[in-house]
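This is your field. Have a critical look at both lines of this record:
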Amino acid sequence: MLKEQRSPDRVIESNPERDREVARACVGRLSPDCSREDWVQIGMALHSLGEDMRELWHDWSSGGATYNRREADRQWDSFKRGAGVGLGTLIQMAGLTTDELRGIGGGSARRTPVPALPISRNKSAPVEPKVQQAAAPARTFPTLDAAVQACTPQGFTEAGRWRYRDDHWVVRFNGATGKRVVPFSCDDSGRWVNRGPSHRTLYGQDSLPEDMDDTVIVVEGEKCADIAATLGFPAVTSGASSSAGVTDWSALAGRQVVVLPDQDDAGAKYAAAVRDQLDSYGCSVSVLELPGLGTGQDIEQWAQREGENAGAALKQLVAEACDDCPLPNMLERMDSMLDRMEKTQGHQFIGLPCGMSQLDRMLDGFRGLVFMSGAPGCGKTNLALQASAGVVGENPDAAVLFVTLEMSSDELMARLICQFASGDRLDWHALLKGQGIDADERARVVSEAQGKLASVLPRLQMLGQTDLHRMMQGGTSAMSALRKAVRSLKRKTGAKRCMVVIDNFAHLPMRGADMTDLELERQKTAELLQFQEQIGEAVLVIAQQSKEDLRSGQGGVAAVKGAVEQVYAADAVLTMTRSKNTAIEDPRGPNRLGAHRLSDRNGEPLPVVKLRLAKGRDGMNRRDMHLMFDHELFQMVELQDEQIERTLENTDA
């Protein structure tokens, strides 16, 4: 572990509050999936700033795959003041520059993405903190050679260099105590620094064949990639076993890939992480465990044992791995299905009810992959938001991840306040502009809505476009980022189930700049289906209706844009069309403006929205229902058949 050092060029005047801001900026640049030694060191540095940093320690650590609150508390309680590890250590680990430190004042800290720290050991038991000699802080050098020479650890010698690209190299050092692998990269000023770039590519990707039918080998580590290449295969690696999630794998999109894991737990986790990444790129992935490997061995020992026959033997094994088609065990599938059925015994609905009685009966609760399409202005987002809040309210064990790619989280929050103030008829204009309501009354209504939302919002997480793109930095796909977000939300809230809402399909970020619109839609739909199957939760995706459908006024399956791909993948397809009403009484009586029928602020009749279940599976009730969107309350009101007093005229054609 690093011992606290004071570097002359980092002497910045500080105070306790500012130190905490610096600490927040530092942990924002560090990965919680780091080695146990680094994890403990970061904890010691935070502990040196005071007991009130414990929650920051938990918030940061909870993003790691092995986080356990009890273990984190136990480790925190073992820290002692005056151990020589403090804020300076944290600054060195995060690589904050002097200019960045000066930029952190009384406001929020600026966060600059840096490569994630590697994963090595788990955090299963507390470690007694040990203070070791400090490593040098990140410095810049005029050339790669100068950087390597200056950063060679004491007692180590350079054992090899591997070029990822011209501005990114990895150097291995061997010493009596083992090996160390250090990345080097060239910054925008042309100087070299002893850390990797923010955007990591694959080692060996420049040598990939043009023929997409050629199988590519993925191994753990640059040395193993070189060995696989000498045996006749194009081979790539992201580096260490922890690097899969912070590397751009797009160079392998659409290829046949065989992963050769090292024979240890880290190797198995690396293979699983690589498969998870490549699934997002439409790759055909097989995992091949080389025969006869001992614990900790890899392709190097296997090739040595095979000798001159290694190339031919590997070719045969790879061919068999690619041709192998493992069939599912049907008895295990039956047992799994019966286990799932046991969980719904005694429940009114199979899926997640939202409290809208007709919609709940129609779907039997939200479950599987559901597409909902409609023309602009039909109220798709409002219905999805209302249903999301309902799911949280009706199901204490459930959470909702609402991915809003069109509207900001603030806009949705304002709509929620209007919805939860529905008993007081607080409309949008009254909330935002104070129209038609005095200041005291507005404050009272908003305060009551806030109180109601206090029990909802912890389990209703909104994720905006900026949030999603931040999570995708380093080459992570949108689906991988959302899988992590679901796991994190369930862990933090204790929820057993988590519905995901994506608004909307058209703005879902997806790699594939060279794809046609149709190819991109197919790719998105395939990844959404796989995403839903992997998380095993309800996924509601909002989509646009086709222009042809709007002209014809039809509300069937063809309403969903990209109909063939989306419809056949989805478990349910909901379509929304608008009709004009002239005499539908408001069942709740006169509103704030004195109107007795559902109308807008100008007294014009509000449109009736017909919601049709155009496709449904497993006991869903294919039927139509009618909704009225109340513009004052930003709520969808379910209408009973007897409320619809005259024929509705379609207005979307």
Summary: DSSP finds 22 helices and 19 strands in the chain. The two ends are 69 Å apart (CA to CA). The CA atoms of residues 246 and 474 lie 5 Å apart. The chain has four domains: 1-136, 140-193, 209-323, 357-578.
